[in-house]
Amino acid sequence: MKKPKIVLEVIKEEDGFSAIADIDDKFIGTQGDNMDELKQNILEVVNLTFSEDGFTYSIDEIELRLPIEKPETLLH
Asked: Which domain of life does this protein belong to (predicted)?
C-alpha cells in the first residue's frame, strides 16, 4: 500500500479550530484551542490512524486547507 496523501479541512469554530478528513475509508477528526494545538492534535491522530498500516507522518507531510476568509490570520 502506498502512503496516503493527508489533506484536512480546517474549520474556524466559535472557540478554536477543528480539522476533518476522510482518507482511505478512515475518518480523521480533531480540534484545538489554537493552530499550534490543532497541528499537534492532527499529527497525533493521523499517526494513530495509520500506525497499523506502518506509516508515520511529520506535520510537513500533512496538508491543511484553511478557510478562504483570510487564511493568513489563522497562522499567527
From this structure: Bacteria
* Overall number of domains in the chain: 1
Q: Contacts for 20-23 with beta carbons within 8 Å, 24 or more apart?
A: 23/49
Cell numbers linked to 59: 506535520
Helices (H), the chain: 35-50
Does the residue 22 lie in any domain?
yes
| pLDDT tens by residue, 10-58 | 999 999 999 999 998 999 999 999 999 999 999 999 999 999 999 999 9
